[in-house]
User: Fold these one by one.
Assistant:
Number 1:
Amino acid sequence: MSAHPVINSLASVLSEAHILTESKRTEHYRSGWRSGRGEALAVVFPQTLLQLWEILEICVEHNCIIIMQAAKTGLTEGSTPSGQDYDRDIVIINTLAMNELVLLGNGEQILSFPGTTLHQLESSLKPLGRAPHSVIGSSCLGASVVGGVANNSGGALVKRGPAYTELALFARVTKEGKLELVNHLDIPLGESPREILHNLQHGQFDKNITPTARKASASDYEARLRDVDANTPSRFNADTSRLFEASGCAGKLAVFAVRLDTFAIAKQEKTYYIGTNNPDVLTALRRHILSTFKYLPEVGEYMHRDIFDIARDYGKDTFLSVKHLGTQRLPKLFALKGRIDALLNKQSWLPKYLSDRVMQGIARCFPAHLPERLNAYRDLYEHHLILKMSDNGIAEADAYLAEFFAQNHQRGDYFSCTAEEAASAYLNRFAAAGAAIRYQLLNQRHVGDIVALDIALKRNDIQWVESLPDSISQQIDKALYYGHFFCHVFHQDYVLKKGADAKAVKAAMLTLLDSREAKYPAEHNVGHLYKAEDGLAAFYRELDPTNTFNPGVGKLDKHKRQCGCC
């Protein structure tokens, strides 16, 4: 197959169809979702856990860099190479083919293989009346379960907190340079790596839930969220209390499986749409609900009027696709779109981002898609909150909101959504991030780059609406704010004016956030775009003392380390 010894060794494990080496064929896997790319000796697609182990053995033996990759939905270049300054050959291991899912007990817990997707998990649990940590609509389409754990991702579900578990099966390289398999699933699977992986792959183990002292979710998050006077954020990527082996590892381990809690689906849900021109109204709502309600919300999503407009106008095709096609087909369609874009963008005679232009044009042919009351609130109010309560929490919210707005009727209003209005509100919010990118792509003649931040404010921060100095605001075409309001986690996308220096603007933004004691990133992880805080950097070095896995993440070194102390 090749004269290269690594490729020859990989060919002894995988078929030719599961090893890519040509630059054109590997480009998609070497390129980040929004930005970043690098070179790779090969991209490989193991079909079984044993093949994954054997590939790791080959890479370690030949002193290769290993980059673990699943759905590649991350926004900070965390699962692709970045730049050309690596000191060893890179092998990208794509894990999506290993997508088995094992239900434990009656579905109260699950075992996820490295390629299992969130959609697959949600679909498997729904008939059992259970739900995963995140659901489609609260995080990326096509995202993998293990990817969420590895990046302690959050989402729109208020009570769940970051994806977290202390129960995992993973491979690591020791400071002596030896590959070892660690079984911390608290499920007996055997002794040797091959025995463990064979038994797991073939389901040869007890699927009852065995008692364990290890956590399979962030079970303390509700109590943390209720402490509205705390001087720290509720969740953020560098929180050392949420870093444990696979949880937060950012690809510094090769994760074979994770064991996670699932959650009972609510029997009844009700959505409220709240509008105001005074952010203090939403502050009062948040603090009262978190500190006094017996039952916390399921969802509490914030949108500013400007991102409402962008999502409505530039996310219409996403809205209609999810509404009419469902979520099952969309991950493959988005992956296909990415490959088509990579091909078409190389043709100089074609306009850039042709697929986006075509989809935008088609969407405009459809009639207005948002319900009348949502559009009316858009005209009336600058700040919007989508609040979902469930079961016993519904009566609690009904009584409080009626009383609150009777006393504050001049400061805002709310309505109880119909099923169609609720679905439309969530879909418009879900389309926001992609819509911001679409706006920037299709208006590149008139606007500059986009600076996308996700930040965590302190739980006691009253001034959550950002006030930018003129030196920054004068360089911005659109400042777009949306996020997970009760968690005080916000996504802030800034489309810059033509000619603005994106790096300088971002640096100024981060300095401003530092002065507010905010944490960033909140849930997209550092990738290659953010510097890891000291605690996070120490965690990475502890997991991967030789810098074999995903070097350079968190803006750390890319060179090989000979021991864990350097």
Number 2:
Amino acid sequence: MTALTLSTSSAATLRADAIVVGVAKGPKGPVIAPGAEAVDKAFGGKLATVLETLGATGAEGEVTKLPAASGLKAPVVLAVGLGEAPAKGDGFDAEALRRAAGSAARALAGSKKGAFALPVEDAAAAAAVAEGALLGAYAYDKANSNGNGAKGGKSKGDEDKKNNGPLAEVALLGAKPRDKAYKAAAERATALIAEVNRARDLINTPSNVLDPASFAAAAVTAAKEHGLKTEVLDEKALAKGGYGGILGVGQGSEAPPRLVRIAYTHPKAEKTLALVGKGITYDSGGISLKPAGHNETMKCDMSGAAAVFAAVVAAAKLGLRVNVTGWLALAENMPSGSATRPGDVLSMYSGKTVEVLNTDAEGRLVLADALTRACEEKPDAIVDVATLTGAMVVALGNRTFGIMSNDDAFRTALHEIAEEAGEASWPMPLPADLRKGIESPVADLANIGDRMGGGLVAGVFLKEFIEDGIAWGHLDIAGPAFNDGGPFGYTPKGGTGSAVRTLVRLAERTADGDLG
């Protein structure tokens, strides 16, 4: 992972491949942001004029490279747009700083060191820049796509990493390495983004390399490294335990399903969070087969489980004073002679029966079993994360996830936490009238209901498996989990690690006693 250092050196004297400065949109043209004073001085106070001549406006994410002026040790100045300049006396928004730093880090791919002279007037601003730069410096190692990649020898991935790998080091100028707040911000950013990148790596790994068993093995390996407890239920244990939802989804595949429990505990914790992740390592739709054009990226259907796994490890790295238990519901949804058929009835772990009317509505089936199991441990709150419905993408687009809950106050808190973490989200309702649509003449429930409001219907279904008295939240990350377009800000092409930062912030807030 990209190294992060705090530096009190001047932007003029620090040796680096490039100096990153911020530029904002002012009423009369681009304005140089705080932090770049030494660089502007090297340009005779005319850096804004030079940038404007080159076409820079200060628009968010805009990147302009130019040769450094004499007097600067770095050979290149990279100006990155921050968007509209804030009102006098106000600082830049944290998310604007994250995105700008991420854009700059992406533009410096292949470089050894970038000196970031962006506005860091306090530890919170420094944290935002650090997070953005580390997020933007991500690159998937293609060697992970080769089942033989770990056996040694050079691969195409090795060459890509050497020539086009991520920025190797981020030097954060203006930060105070001896200041406890700045140091803590840097340490948190490093731990947090390492786990976001863990989730990204898992999501980007091809399904022929990452199946339920290998995903479970990765969780066990990480648990040993970070002192976590794990329990893995294989297909025999799932059958013995009556996990009909997970088994029903996975029975069509030659790669059998798993349910993984991975837990972090703190000796002084007063609260316990349960996180449940949908982990469909490949989703063909099953017998209700997805059409061409809708299945090429379905390796990403385990993004929820990846986020939960990463969040539990992050909580351990940060030593949070809260217990966090993750449940990874892992299966591969494939068509075969043994696959669940439309019209089949599954007996769930809860004892309820479900008529499967569409085998491509499989995520809610594995989640239902995992949610029921999580409720048995009586956590203070449960949050599930899933790439659950295309309907949520239609409603909210590709960059915003939906939040549903059985508790309005908890839903509001989750929305605030997501926004604070820098992840776009929106609260969604669970209309009671949609419950009638999932009634079945042959089972307790059907796995689909009304087509309109399909994302909400899925939430209504999941609510049926939550024990009374437990606050529950549902994050449908179907839109932002996988970016199949071009990279932007700190968001790469491919797996994004959506919801990891939100879950970690939730754990921090819970540890601090902010959620009651």
